[in-house]
Description:
This protein is an alpha/beta fold. It is 30% helix and 18% strand. The protein has a 7-stranded mixed beta sheet, with helices on both faces. Helix 2 links the parallel strand 1 and strand 2.
Amino acid sequence: MRLRNKPWANDRIKAHPQYVPGQPEQLKGQWQSRFAKNQPLHIEVGSGKGQFIVEMAKAHPDINYISIEIQASALVSILDKQIEEDLPNLQILLGDGRNLTEYFAPGEISLVYLNFSDPWPKKKHAKRRLTSPYFLAQYEGILPTGGQIHFKTDNRGLFEYSLAAMSQYGMILNQVWLDLHASDFEGNIMTEYEEKFSARGQVIYRLEAAFKVGK
């Protein structure tokens, strides 16, 4: 995602520690203390400007959410939305998805969302894809037994890669949508990219996969 650099972004983030903790690794195993209620905890890895995660938090007040974004210039857009909404079930983490096991304890997260991730189309960059074996191991390390990943993309190549990577990792594919918007799926909340791509008539792919019990 190409963003206009916002040199003031880090100062704005530091000014709102109630929403964006300054040292997230120190909250490992204690993230529930950041929320008004102790509830199932879902994360989105790579939240972009945050439309999906903010709308999910509004639609599901019985779930706690953490938005994870590595780019400060994108994260401030999420922060602006949270400042306006002040949702008690949403926190924001400035950090790298490659280091999830440094931020979260085993089983601390109930569900992982991956939405419109960078496809990294070149084979030499495959390990950077958020559904590569390295990242799958990160998710497995923070989810409970049988924990799930929900994944959406408009990129067919990335979707096919993800189906294969998850199957080879030993995950169970619970459901697969080859054209989400033409299906009877209910409760879909769109990201900014999803709105743009679907308006162009592009197909949206979605899957729900779980780690095998006793793998």
